[in-house]
Amino acid sequence: MQKAMDRRSERPNDGAPPPGVLVEDVPVSSRAGRAGFRAGDRLLEVNGRPVEDHLDVRFHAALGDWEAVVDREGKRIRVRVPEGPDPLGGLVLEEFRPRTCGNRCIFCFVDQLPPGVRPSLLVKDEDIRLSFLHGNYTTLSTIRDREIERILEQRLSPLYVSVHAVDEEVRALLLGVRPRRPLLPVLERLLAGGIEVWGQVVLCPGINDGPVLEDTVRRLAALHPGFRGVAVVPLGLSGHRREDDRLHPVTPDAARAVLETIDRLRKEIMPRLGTRFVFPADEFLLLTGTPIPPADAYEDFGMLEDGVGMVRDFLDRFDDAVDGVSPGDGPAIRELAVVSGTLFAPVLEPLLRRAERGTGARVFSIPAPNGFLGGGVTVAGLLAGRDVARALAAAGVRGDAAIPAEAISRSVGLFLDDWTPERTAAEAGVERLHILHGPEDLIRLLREGRVSEEGAGSYPA
């Protein structure tokens, strides 16, 4: 599954766009405005080079003044923009439409979504630009020489690559199609050009674990330091997936075997490379009851959004937030129900006991089963509004409740099922629903009755 479903464009790529890049807005007083640009212009060339998106424009306009060829109502005109601190000179350019994925990955989570979800959640991108800008994963299975040359010329680094397996037969099985080109030569070409790469393996028990995983990690480690590291994450299986005898859930026993494999590989790799290189997602640790390692085990937390080190990061931030509490007149909120995914709830409960002692409030957790996607999905970031409402109502909560901000789309402010926080609060029957951006917001809410500006807010029913 990709890192952030809410980072996808709301506009699926439903046809070839017109050439060039649309100028959506330009302040009259800006350098570009004074040079003659107008909203509605379509920028075709910069310094004699064709452009197809705002990354092209930024790259070719980066040095000094620049000259553009613009299509304005069917007429081509030239505009020269003088040098300044902002290469674009004040232009507001359209966002590009993501290139969609032609793979048919047997574990693809998008294909496991229930009917009726908003169209943007169904967009499967395979776009090196989104990999560079937002950390989305790309398989490189259909990348063309022209795209590789662009990556190298424009230094689009780092990139994030879904490897899954280096063995090409296993890789083809997982991708559901025969890749146009083998992976390792593409990686070697990128790394030789100075591009850094992070990798991901979606672990499918019985397919790319065991010896296949060992082979994958060893061959990728041979590409270090350009290939920075690889995250191993468990496949997700929703209740809406098509039956496939090849796919099996990651059980505690399977997770334990993966951790043992990773531990052997690290003992082999660490003395040679000075890095652990391969990192298991937190879910493997939680499934097996393995203690969460200290922060230095995650090195620079470079794979945090893959779910690698998120629990440790939360624990350490919670410690800092609780330690920073000073005595006061009492809590601003006397009772708070905190909704979480079922996997994290056992970790959260003792933290809430500490929050109680530190603030004087009564704080308790509400593990919410995922009815929208199925019980096999256990993380808070994939809870639907109806799941949150159902869990709160079943627990008889009537006052203040809270959920992590990861459950709300950053782009549209909705749960996966398009419920708003206000509707969720009303359906749950709670007085207010608070959206928490980390443990700092939890402590601030209890002590001050508010969340930070980073937080997603508080919503009355």
Provide a quick synopsis of the model.
The chain is built from 14 helices and 15 strands.
Note down, in words, how this protein is organized.
This protein is α/β, with parallel strands linked by helices and 461 residues long. It contains 14 helices and 15 strands. A hairpin with a 2-residue loop joins strand 2 (42-46) and strand 3. Helix 10 (310-323) packs parallel to helix 11 and helix 12 packs parallel to helix 13. The longest helix is centred in the middle third of the chain and has 22 residues, at 252-273. The chain is globular, with a radius of gyration of 24 Å. Residues 1-14 have low confidence and may be disordered.
Radius of gyration: 24 Å
Query: Quaternary status of these chains?
Result: single chain
The number of E-state strands comes to 15
Q: What general form does the structure show?
A: globular
> Per DSSP, what share of the residues sits in E-state strands of 2 or more residues?
15-25%
List the helices and strands and how they pair.
Elements: E1 21-25, H1 31-35, E2 42-46, E3 49-50, H2 54-60, E4 66-72, E5 75-81, E6 92-93, H3 128-134, H4 145-154, E7 159-162, H5 168-175, H6 183-192, E8 197-203, H7 210-221, E9 227-234, H8 252-273, E10 278-280, H9 282-288, H10 310-323, E11 335-340, H11 345-359, E12 362-367, H12 385-394, E13 400-404, H13 421-428, E14 432-436, H14 439-448, E15 457-460
Parallel strand pairs: 7-8, 8-9, 9-10, 11-12, 11-13, 13-14
Antiparallel strand pairs: 1-2, 1-6, 2-3, 2-4, 4-5, 14-15
Helix pairs in contact: 7-8, 8-9, 10-11, 12-13
